Amino acid sequence: MTAPLDPSSTVFVDVDTQVDFVEPDGALYVPGGELLKPAFATLLEAARRHDRPVIASADAHPPGDPEFATFPPHCLAGTPGQRRVAETEPTAARVIDVAGVDAGGEGRTTVLEKVKFDLFTNPAAERELAATGAKTAIVFGLALDYCVRAAALGLRERGYETVVVRDATAPVTAEGGARVEAELRDAGVRFATTAEVDAAFP
To answer: 8-200: which CATH topology?
Structure first.
């Protein structure tokens, strides 16, 4: 990371830190996902210290989703595997369903449900991000070469300074991770460590 972070103009974007991706017994486990849980907790604590908003994407697939022709069934809406891991489960959150409809709740965290890789396929995503007033998005979660990639590129396309937290994400494959990291750098995405972000939010 080169330029300093301004805590007053940031939003934390928590990408799919769900049981089915993070835990070794999850339906679509990302290798090493469980090792990232302390980093997830540190980042969200930094957000809490400065009362910064959190936009959290969440897969919420219906039974028989077409994606299951490519990937094993995972994050079925309402199942334990669809829940966030304890380190990222908000005590209170506003949930917006896959159609962009506010499903209720309130809190500093807004959960955007989705059925595709890209959080911007939720019709409310642009509006909810704009409502935070943020200029910089700090992105973490899973998986780097799929949903994190889509979120980071989507944020850059919409003019956000985008910082991916390198040690708070992991790829499905090492080759895919290396390819995507190069792609993101070419798109102007910056990379930082959890320690660097935490230090910027004293």
So the answer is: Rossmann fold (3.40.50)
How far apart are alpha carbons 163 and 6 in whole angstroms? 12
Q: Which residues pair with 172 in a beta bridge?
A: none
CA atoms of 91 and 43, how far apart (whole Å): 16
Rg (the chain; Cα; Å): 15
Residue 159 and residue 188 in contact, taking contact as beta carbons nearer than 8 Å:
no
Question: In whole angstroms, what is the distance from residue 142 CA to residue 152 CA?
Answer: 12
Cβ atoms of residues 112 and 56 within 8 Å: yes
Cβ atoms of 2 and 190 within 8 Å: the answer is yes
Quote the CA–CA distance of 57 and 105 in Å, as a whole number.
15
Q: Token pair of 49, please?
A: 């210290």
Q: What is the chain's mean pLDDT, rounded?
A: 96
Q: What is the pLDDT of residues 30-57, one digit of tens each?
A: 999 999 999 999 999 999 999 999 999 9
d(CA 30, CA 10): 27
**Distance (Å, whole) CA 55 – CA 7:** 15
Can you give the residue ranges of every domain in the chain?
8-200
Residue 31 CA to residue 143 CA, distance in Å, equals 10
Question: What residue ranges of the chain have pLDDT lower than 50?
Answer: none
